[in-house]
Amino acid sequence: MEIASKYEPQKVEKHWYDYWMSNGYFHSTPDEREPYTIVIPPPNVTGVLHMGHMMNNTLQDVLIRRARLMGKNACWVPGTDHASIATEAKVVAKLKEQGINKADLTREEFLKHAWDWTDEYGGVILDQLKKLGCSCDWDRTKFTLDDNMSASVIKVFVDLFEKGLIYRGFRMVNWDPEAQTTLSDEEVIHEEKQGLLYYLEYQIEGSDEKVTIATTRPETILGDTAICINPEDERYAHLRGKKAIVPLSGRTIPIIEDEYVDVEFGTGCLKVTPAHDINDKALGEKHNLEIIDIFNANATLNHHGLHYEGKDRFVVRKEISKELEEKGFLVKTESHLNKVGTSERTKAVIEPRLSDQWFLKMEQLAEPAIKAVLETGDVKLFPKKFENTYRHWMENVRDWNISRQLWWGQQIPAYYYGEGAEDFVVAESKEEALKKAIAKTGNKALSASDLKQDEDALDTWFSSWLWPISVFNGILEPENKEIEYYYPTNDLVTGPDILFFWVARMIVSGYEYRDEKPFQNVYLTGLVRDKQRRKMSKSLGNSPDALGLIEQYGADGVRVGLLLSSAAGNDLMFDEALCQQGKNFANKIWNGFRLVQGWEVADLPQPEASKLGIEWYKSKFAQTLLEIEDHFSKYRISDALMAIYKLVWDDYSSWLLEIVKPAYQQPIDKTTFDEVIAIFEDNLKLLHPFMPFLTEEIWQHITERTPDQALVIAKWPEATVINEDLISGFDFAAEVIAGVRTIRKQKNIPMKEYLELSALNEGDIANDWDVIIKKLTNVSEITYVKEAVEGALSFRVKSNEYFIPISGAIDVDAEIKKIQEELKYTKGFLMSVQKKLSNERFVSNAPEQVITIERKKQSDAEAKIETLEKSLASLQ
Question: Can the peptide bond before residue 488 be classed as cis, meaning omega within 30 degrees of 0?
Fold first, then answer.
């Protein structure tokens, strides 16, 4: 095949992805091999690829491709999440644009629109993942609303209800007035916001006396049903048993006593609004107070709101405070910083609201999941620091509010046959519900038409917490071949922001329904931020177009750019320059391949330099392979890539290819060529998980390959014996080469001009490397001498000093001046270090590591001065 002059990712990426797909390399079925399984954190069905997805899925692809190369049966299950709140909001907004109100539709009509939306946009993000190179088993693609996935969710709900773990209760919940649904505590973000504290006067019934109360929400006075004082507060003892009049509404409310009231906060008097505050709700139940809900579902005021009915709560806050002031009820206002709960999804300010909801008891279920992570280590978190966060959440777990006032999602399988609180049954189908209802009531006259299913849908997380089990149909068929083979899965790659929402809950469900962990390792990535450390978001306009980056830099370039800075658990400061670095690396590899392929091969003896260079590189490769394996075991994926990057860029491209390169217009011997190609193939295997497209393209160019010889299913390199002497010997030689090259550069001696090199051997040095030193520095001869060479430039490598005789082309006077200046500077530097080391306070107080560094500086300066003085003496 003809090799293009430059690597053009746009021309090869689709070709190789189609090739991989057509040959079924990504598809997995159970067999005798060791399974390696990853389940994708399912993105929202209507989502599009963003930088977080790019990083997360690149990491998963690296792990799955490496496992495939290691001979494991790699299975990466893709899929999407129905995302109840987000998707329903988008569908409602689209209907609104068409002049359709959701309230005017039946559930069936709305769901048809929702499915149309999903069919149109649902596959977009998965197609985009293919452009990134993700090697998912697309035949296994799942959607959380697939029939069998939904059936699994319903089966689990019924099971947990029958175990007494799911119950229905009238509770204070977090209400999102924009999405018009409840949220769990974990879906509420508490933000500090500057507001006002309003001091209002309530008149005492039957007197001219008034009592002042402080509130942050003056609009809620219309729902007040009591005023509460502390029984120990003597200031208000005379008000016991009396009543107060609510400003504007004129309602009379009792004055009650409770130790809950903080005598130090505000005025020591508390207004009690049981419908709109969780603590007030508890007071209301304790003192049997009336409950007045003043809000509609969209947080506008209802008929209890007087002349403010129909107006938004925040509009009312401004208007009612003005009216209270005008009518003499508002005494004063003060600035007040308080925490406000906002919806994670819609960003709307949450309203505490009383309603009938379904809850899952979590305390008992959480116990095996706590033990698995914090005691036995059956599930490991990387980085380990997240164990503290996990512990805090799980040991303080609350009952999970699993019902949502939405239509998009699994409808709660509760069927009502009467008006009483207990007049319902829970069943997997209406037919089963009818049987249960007849058995419960003894009423054989009941028919299916008498049953009314609960309108609410289940929380989306209640579906995705079963993901590692349900994708293999392990709920409906708990002993099927696939769940037995693939479960537990191996690695989970996700963000720490859903450690509780999803990760912890999957561990809970794993132990409840399989009596086993759902995965062995959880690799928690950081967030992708911009260079200013800001979280990437559409609103800030700082999130680059993910597909645009792939178009510009190639998928491999973007993958490398992301991974070079994505240490586990640490946020990634994304800079587009990283993608350029990735693209440059791809070009470097491509050009290195073109160089080798351009050599003419002949039947010649192998040069000693080439033989030695190849032996060294094999040891260096084996050493790097061990380092890479160690990084992978600790989920330091970016460190693994950097180790490969240095191996290929520095050791292979900059050193080995220079060592073996034949002279200008001369052929290379076949032994060396074959070994270099074999080495290059091993490099490609290490690179493939990170740069799949480039590596497959080159692999297929090297020689004609059949489908069973594709790189995607090649064999991961095996560690060989590491010759430490070869590695340290080369490191020494590299320093000598660098010394000669520095002198050439400083003295403007062209590479084509031969030099002579003498070595004063003060230590034990093998001259095995002379053959490589000579080739890479164009030195004609290296001689070993017993004393310093007069009239020569010198440099030191460890305990050995090297001399290069001065040619007539060098300006001796200028060289003397230059050395004198460098000598003066170095002596000054040495004096400053010695002064520091002679300071007793510094030596006694500084850390040992700092003292060691300073002493190293001293010895290096002394050695440099000695070399410079010798060079100067040889010139004078």
Answer: yes
- Contact by Cβ (8 Å): 334, 266: no
CB 162 within 8 A of CB 171: no
pLDDT digits (tens, 9 = 90+) for 530-564: 777 777 665 566 777 888 999 999 999 999 999 98
Conformational region of residue 191, where left means phi above 0, alpha means psi within -120 to 50, and beta covers everything else: beta
Q: Alpha carbon of 848 to those of 835, 842, 844: distances in Å?
A: 17, 11, 9
H/E run at residue 285: helix 278-286
Beta pairing partners, 183? 174
Beta strands 142-143 and 79-80 are parallel
Rounded-to-integer distance, Cα 801 and Cα 867, Å = 8
* Long-range contacts from 27-34, C-beta under 8 angstroms, 24+ separation: 27/137, 27/139, 28/73, 28/74, 28/75, 28/137, 28/140, 30/73, 30/481, 30/482, 30/485, 30/486, 31/73, 33/71, 33/72, 33/73, 34/71, 34/72, 34/73
Q: Rounded to an integer, what distance in angstroms lies between the CA atom of residue 729 and that of residue 824?
A: 34
Find out whether 38 and 76 touch, Cβ atoms under 8 Å: yes
Residues 55, 525: contact at Cβ < 8 Å?
A: yes
85-106: per-residue pLDDT in tens?
888 888 988 998 999 988 899 9
Tokens of 750: 């062209």
Provide the residue type at 597 as one letter. Answer: Q
What one-letter code names the amino acid at 868?
L
- Phi, psi of 329, rounded to the nearest 5 degrees: -90, -30
Q: What is the pTM of this model?
A: 0.84
Q: Do residues 462 and 153 lie in contact, with contact meaning Cβ atoms separated by under 8 Å?
A: yes
Distance CA 401, CA 456 (A): 12
Q: Any idea what DSSP says for residue 828?
A: H
What does the mean pLDDT of the chain come to?
A: 91
Q: 246 by DSSP, 3-state: which?
A: coil
Query: What is the Cα–Cα distance from 580 to 765, expressed in whole angstroms?
Result: 42
Domains annotated on the chain, with CATH: 181-351 (3.90.740.10)
Alpha-carbon gap, residue 165 to 367, rounded angstroms: 14
* Euclidean distance between CA atoms 143 and 408, whole angstroms: 13
Q: Is-contact 559 58, C-beta < 8 A?
A: yes
Helix (H, G, I), strand (E, B) or coil at 368: helix
Q: Quick check: helix, strand or coil at residue 825?
A: helix
Determine which helix (DSSP H) or strand (DSSP E) holds 183, and give its type and residue range: strand 181-183
Q: Are 87 and 409 in contact (CB under 8 A)?
A: no
531 CB neighbour count, 10 Å cutoff: 11
* Spatial CA neighbour of 486 closest among 463, 516, 464: 516
pLDDT in tens, 316-341: 999 999 999 999 999 999 998 888 99
CA distances from 80 to 27, 94, 102, 126, 841 (A): 18, 21, 24, 8, 64
* pLDDT at 571 exceeding the cut of 80: no
* Among 677, 697, 695, CA closest to 686: 695
Distances (CA, A) of 209 to 201, 206, 257: 10, 9, 19
**What Å distances lie between residue 190 and 193, 353, 581, 667, CA to CA?**
9, 17, 39, 71
User: Is-cis flag, bond preceding 518, omega within 30?
Assistant: no
Tell me: pLDDT of 808 over 60. no
Task: Identify the band that residue 819 occupies on the pLDDT scale cut at 50, 70 and 90.
Answer: confident
> What is the model's pLDDT at position 719?
85
Q: What is the mean pLDDT of residues 447-468?
A: 95
Distance CA 170, CA 488 (A): 38
Task: For residue 617, count CB atoms less than 10 angstroms from its CB and return exposed for 0-12, middle for 13-18, buried for 19 or more.
Answer: buried
Q: Is the dihedral of CA 461, 474, 56, 8 positive or negative?
A: negative
Judge contact between 874 and 791, C-beta under 8 A: yes
Q: Are 486 and 472 in contact (CB under 8 A)?
A: yes
> Is the separation of the CB atoms in 271 and 246 below 8 Å?
no
